[in-house]
Structures are given as C-alpha cells and as structure tokens.
Amino acid sequence: MAMTPWQLDTPVVMMVFNRPDCTSLVFEAVRAARPRQLLVIADGPRDRAGEAELCAQVRQVFDAVDWECEVRTEFSEENLGCRRRVSSGLDWVFSQVEEAIILEDDCLPHPSFFPFCRELLARYRNEPRIGQIAGVNFQFGRHRIAESYYYSRFNHIWGWATWRRAWLQNDKEMAHWPAFRDAGALNGILSGRKQAAYWSDVLDRVASGEIDTWDCQWTLSCWRHGLLSVIPAVNLVSNIGFGPGATHTPVPNKYADMPVQAVRFPLVHPAVIAPDAVADAYTLKTQYREYPFLARLLAAVKARLRKLAGRE
Questions:
Q1: pLDDT digits (tens, 9 = 90+) for 216-259
Q2: Which of 179, 196, 242, 301 could bond to 256 as cystine, CB 3.0-4.6 Å?
Q3: pTM, 2 dp
Q4: Whether the predicted pLDDT of 1 surpasses 50
Q5: Which CATH superfamily is domain 12-309 in?
Q6: In angstroms, rounded to a whole number, what is the distance separating the alpha carbons of residues 155 and 227?
Q7: H-type helices in the chain, by residue range?
Q8: Ordered DSSP codes for 275-290
Q9: Where are the domains of the chain?
Q10: Which SS3 state, helix, strand or coil, does residue 7 take?
C-alpha cells in the first residue's frame, strides 16, 4: 500500500477504560492518521454496576480498525487503577517499540498533532536533554513566539510522545523522591519556596498513595534527570473528558474542550535548547496553587459539608 501523508509509521498508543463515547471520538482521529501500529492499554472494571459492560464496549471500539495496521492489546481483567495501569501499560509499550505517540481516551488531537510528533520524535531521538513532545499549549494565546514550539520544564501529558530511552528513566515507585526532596532540589527547579512547598506536598501525597496517579512520578523523573518537554506554539489537543465519570477532571473549567488549531509546516525550530522562562512562569502562576495546606483544608471542609447535607 502506498504511503499517504496521514499514514503514520510511528506507533500510536491509546489508553482507555470505561468511556466508549470519548474513546470512539479519539479513535476516529487515530483512524484518520492510519498508524501502522496501534497499541491499546485498557484497565479492568471496578465493582460498580454497569462498569464491566462499559469496559467491554470500549474494547469493542478497536474492532473497527479497517486500515493496514498491526493492533496489539494489553487488556487488564482486574482494575489496577490509574497509577498502576498507565505505568505498567507504558512499560509494556516500550518493551516493544522505541518511540510512540500516546493518547488517553479523552484527548482529542488536531490532525497536525501526528506529523508534529513524528517529526520531532525523529529530530530529538538522540537528544538526551529532551524527555517528551507535548500536544497541549496552556498559554491561551498570551505568549506568542516566532518558532513552532518552545521548551518547558513542565511535561504536559494530554496527548504526548516519547522514546524508550526517556521512559526507562521513569521512577514509578518514587524510590529517589525522599533523597531528592531532602536535598532541596526542587528549589533549583521551581520559582521560589512556595512552589517548592506545593510540589513537595503533592509528591509526598503521591508517594504515600493518597493520590492515585502516574504522571507526577513522570514529572519528578524528568526533573531529576534535567529533561525538558517540547510544547507546541498552538494548542493541538482538546480534553473532551471533563465531567461526571472523569477520574481527575469531574468539574469543567477553562481547560475543558480547549479549541485546537493547526501547526504550520515546515516547522520553525528554536535556536537554543533551554526552557522558556516566560511561558513556564505563566504555567506556574495559572496551573499550580501555591498554598497546598489551605487548598486541602478547603477541600476537607467542602467534603464535610456534603457529608452533613447527606445526613439531613
């Protein structure tokens, strides 16, 4: 079969669970790109009414592959949870392929996301300072650059791509976190003590199991190894999964359903590999709270009020 501009030779990964509607929309975007390899990671159902049926519907979506494509699946029969399922799934992926484009079931990409990732995966394949290629841009048009992308200390994962050589540095068990924390290493990465305190609190909670997630471990690993992320100058991925049923985004906010637009080719590359201080400062200011204790206290008060209201 002759290659077309949208037939990828880069493997694509889809990580799915129990949302057939979202999964179908993202699958259609993947179908348009027609990757030669599709690797599907699925978590198993929890002990909740109707969830087994939803998980089965999600897995059936991939029966619709109708192009020249090798499909590999890693379907868990038990529920592993976000932390174990994603990390173990990506371990499985990178035991088989050298690089991949990764989409969760609610991350809907613009068509140009795929060639953007493909080109930059090749460009930075052997560049040890780059840890991943991101698809989202959270600058909301405030930070405009002449180049097609910038470098960041923050590795956004709503649609992304990486290499085996980078993923092998992921410390999913956070074994190195206590020494990294106690050495005050966050102070040299983040802008001030408040941000370091915020992230230290979050990472402590992840390490203790209080927060069930995988991406904070990946962020920490990138920081430990000094890895930067490539961020597109325009937003290439929209998160369509906000709302009831979402694991981490049950309440819509300004990051829900963000509009996407095409990145222009040929890509214009930055002259120097270094984090964009202006863009990263905006990310710190708008995405990460500086007062974790107060945020946790407010959340606890709200939970208590909901519980009391339920007793009335």
A1: 999 999 999 999 999 999 999 999 998 666 555 555 678 888 99
A2: 242
A3: 0.89
A4: no
A5: Spore Coat Polysaccharide Biosynthesis Protein SpsA; Chain A (3.90.550.10)
A6: 9
A7: 20-33, 51-60, 81-94, 113-123, 164-167, 177-182, 193-208, 215-224, 277-287, 292-311
A8: B-HHHHHHHHHHHS-S
A9: 12-309
A10: coil
